[in-house]
Specification:
The protein is mainly β and about 300 residues long. Helices cover about 0% and strands about 40% of the residues. It is built from no helices and 21 strands. The strands form six sheets. The protein has a five-stranded antiparallel sheet, with no helix packed on it. Strand 16 and strand 17 form a beta hairpin. It is rod-shaped.
Length: about 300
């Protein structure tokens, strides 16, 4: 039994209850009808549930499309409200009577039960490497039970060491190993696809170029021009348009950051003693046996 002053608000637990309101219980106020000073009402307080989903919104459309758009594990969400004092969840720790700190499970979900009627706010801390694609924070009203979906889109993969080539100087027909170094994606359970590109001259060869961070580049042969080749790689999260291009950076300066093709030439012929100085090797003109220098 509680004595309350009107008007009043009284919070209780979920379940069935009986409320009794009594005024002038000792008949101290003169009335024409002393029998209507008490009222008894039965009422039910509904316990509601809140389900929160955090999913990887790969295409950034703000909708959980399923398939590869899987849940994100380990996301932190703060849930607040005066109606969560008796709320329970294995995914949350209580900060106060009106605040819960929650973490998504392996499926990217949080389940909270025993939420009383009223309004609750859910505020997502967006993980590093992601951007939010849905409303944040979200305010919900109970009853009925509610579901909140938070979408987060990962950034394109990054390669901390960029794209390198070794060696960076080759002759026609020789090869250089291309490597995308330290490539990672913030998305959970995702793989990276490498698309290798090279404008002429040269060609890309690799056992499985789309799924490895290493490829082999081969210089054309024969080739007679001293030139640089500029192969590149497009690093993407598999099955998405989340991509980032990388070009070779070999420390040679702007304009020379590529593979240097140095042609090889063969010089052949005879050096002879031109007895009659007619610039032709005649029968009497013997080959010269001394040393010569080519520059």
């Amino acid at each position: 039994t509680r004595t309350l002053n009107f008007p009043f608000t009284y919070s209780t637990t979920a379940g069935s209850h009986t409320g009794v309101a009594m005024v002038d219980s000792n008949c101290q106020v003169g009335e024409s009808n002393e029998s209507d000073n008490t009222r008894t009402d039965a009422y039910t307080v509904t316990a509601n549930n809140l389900t929160i989903n955090v999913y990887q919104d790969l295409n950034g459309n703000g909708t959980d499309d399923g398939g590869t758009e899987t849940g994100y594990s380990g996301a932190n969400i703060i849930v607040t409200g005066t109606n969560i004092g008796s709320a329970t969840s294995s995914n949350c720790t209580r900060q106060s009577s009106s605040s819960l700190s929650c973490t998504t499970n392996a499926s990217g979900q949080i389940a909270i039960s025993t939420i009383l009627p009223g309004s609750t706010t859910a505020n997502l801390t967006v993980p590093t490497g992601f951007t939010s694609t849905t409303t944040d924070p979200v305010i919900t009203t109970f009853p009925p039970s509610q579901t909140i979906n938070f979408g987060i889109q990962p950034a394109a993969p990054t390669c901390s060491g960029g794209l390198t080539a070794s060696p960076v100087t080759v002759n026609p027909g020789q090869t250089s190993t291309l490597r995308a170094n330290g490539c990672t994606t913030p998305a959970q359970g995702a793989t990276i696809t490498y698309t290798w590109l090279t404008p002429a001259p040269g060609s890309i060869t690799s056992t499985n170029p789309s799924l490895t961070s290493t490829a082999t580049w081969t210089a054309p042969n024969p080739y007679w021009t001293d030139i640089y080749a500029y192969p590149t790689v497009n690093v993407c999260q598999t099955g998405t348009t989340l991509c980032r291009p990388y070009a070779i950076s070999n420390g040679l300066g702007v304009g020379n950051q590529g593979i240097h093709i140095v042609p090889l030439f063969t010089v052949s012929g005879n050096v002879f003693v031109d007895q009659n100085k007619d610039s032709l090797q005649n029968g009497a003109d013997a080959n010269y046996t001394g040393g010569i220098t080519l520059t």
